[in-house]
Each structure stands twice: as C-alpha cells, then as structure tokens.
Amino acid sequence: MVKEKKAKTRKKVSYAKWGYIFLIPFFATYTIFSLIPLISTFYNSLFENYRSGLTQIGPNFVGLQNYISIFQSDLLKYFGNTMILWIIGFVPQIIVSLILAVWFADFRMRLKGSTFFKTIIYMPNVIMAASFAMLIFALFSDDGPMNNLLIKAGLSDGPIRFLATVWGTRGLIGLMNFMMWFGNTTILLMAAIMGVDASLFEAASIDGAKSFQIFTKVTMPIIRPIFIYVLVTSMIGGLQMFDVPQVLTNAKGTPDRTSMTLIMFLNNHLYSKNYGMAGALSVILFFITAVLSMFVFIMLTSSGNKKGGRN
C-alpha cells in the first residue's frame, strides 16, 4: 500500500509552474520593449542633450530644468488642441457606433446584408492614416472636388479655404478620426451587446419597456465595462494623435498652431535632436495619459456602482 501511494504521488504533475513559464515571454517582451525604454526616457529627460549645428551639446545633467522649460512653453495650448480634436472625432463616433451596434445586434430587425455593411464600415480602419489624410487634403483643397461641387450647386460663390480656418482644419481632422475608427468601435460595442442574455430584452419588452428604455436601463448598464474600455482606449489614442494632423497641416499645425498636438510637439524636439526635452515631454505625456485614464475609469465605475446600489 505504501509503495502504491508513493507511485501515485510521483505520477502527479505540478501544473502551477507551467503558468509561470508561459508568462515568461510576455514579461521578457514587456521588460525589453516597454519597461527599459520607459526608465531610459525618464533618465535621459534629466540631461541636456541636443545638437547645435554640427556640435553635440551634452549630455549634461540639468535635473528638472527640461520639465520647467516644457511647462513654460505652449504645452497647455497643445494639450487643449489635442483634447478638442479628440472630442470632435469621438462624440459623433460613439453616437453612430452605438446606434449601428444596436441595429446590427438586434435579431428582431433581421437586417439583410448586415455582414456586408459590417465589412464596409470597418474598411477605413485598415487604411493607412497618412493615405487617408492625403485623400481628404485633395478633396477639400481650394480647387478640389468638394469646392467645385459647392460652387456648381450654387452653395458658394467661390472656393472655401477649409484648411485656412481654425475650425475648418479641426473639423476635417475630427471627420477623419471619426471615419477611421467608428467601424472598430461599432464591432466592439456590437460584440458586447450580443453577449447580453436575450431573455433580459424579452422580459423588458413584456413589462412594457420601450426601445429607448431597454437601451438605457438594460443594454447600457450591462455593456458598461466595454464602454469604459472603448472610452479609455479612444482617449489614449486621442492623446497620441499624430499622423492625421501631421500630414494634413504639413507638420505645422496650421493655422497658428491651433492643430498642433502633443505628439507633434514631441516630434519637433526629436526632429531637432533635442533628446532631453523630448524625454521630458514624453514623461509628462505618460503621466497625463495615466491620470486621465484613471480619472475616467474611476468616475464611470463609481457612478455605475452607485446606480447599482440604488437599485
């Protein structure tokens, strides 16, 4: 009996260690490509390191002087530009995506060709942003097709300089961000809605709830985690906005730097090889992103818990 017990214990395999072994590639990749560069960026932000003509200045330790210089610049203006451009694109994006997600996920409507439309609305997401920006630039230029159409339709006496006005440029950037990402947002929200138990919708309908009441009282509370995920990731993407305004405004943020984003400001320091200032701005952007993401997450989750407690 003792020998049989020993044989059984020997045959037992400890699977706990395999979990840690499978996690090694992730942590190794994260350490090499994320953690070490993050620490290196923070370290380099404490040094004066730039090129003046053919002369390399530094690296010289300057402490927090780079951060002071960044805050004395137009950082707040560029942060405001970035948030405005994100909001202009995100608000219509989330509204349209919610409507489409509800329609596509509602089996009672029996929409024909839904697979085709899902493919069509997702296609702009796979187009390179630079190519899309060049297309919009050509369409809305002074002698482009859009101006020709407005003039021939009698809606304008002359060409409208969309890219020469503040809100014209911001509107086009917001339009591009909306068109590029609303398909991806629709797919995410639709997947969340399809994961809701259909019996909940049927029970609400039997109780006399109308479509809008079902959406606000049943659908939205259940898909709140996915909605928070979409909001936070979209905000992070908005703070990292670069390629669309960079191409559309020829890297100048025209007119009068009202379309200059934080990443465009960072790119200017990298282009001029001012690595100390670029590192300081990167660290500031990291903390801004972290603080805003945590704020949005806490606000939405706490409001959801309060509503859940009242019910």
TrEMBL record:
Membrane topology: Multi-pass membrane protein
Alphabetical GO biological process terms: transmembrane transport
Transmembrane segments: 20-43, 83-107, 119-140, 178-201, 222-242, 275-300
Pfam families: BPD_transp_1
Subcellular location: Cell membrane
Residues of the ABC transmembrane type-1 domain: 79-296
Keyword rRNA processing tagged: no
InterPro entries: ABC_transporter_permease, MetI-like, MetI-like_sf
CC per GO annotation: plasma membrane
Keywords from the UniProt entry: Cell membrane, Membrane, Transmembrane, Transmembrane helix, Transport
Family: Belongs to the binding-protein-dependent transport system permease family.
Name this protein carries in UniProt: ABC transporter permease
Organism: Lacrimispora algidixylanolytica
